[in-house]
Amino acid sequence: MSTATLTTGLVEIRNVHKSYNGVDVLHDVSLTIEPGEVVSILGPSGSGKSTLLRTINHLETVDAGWVTIDGALIGYEHRGDKLYELKEKQILGRRTQVGMVFQNFNLFPHLTALQNIVEAPVALKRLSKADARELAAGLLDRVGLGDKADAYPRQLSGGQQQRVAIARALALQPKVLLFDEPTSALDPELVGEVLDVIRDLAKLGTTLVIVTHEIGFARDVSDRVIFIDHGVILEQGTPGEVLGTPRHPRTKEFLGNVL
Ligand code: ADP
Ligand code: MG
Question: Domain ABC transporter spans what residues (predicted)?
Answer without folding.
Answer: 11-255
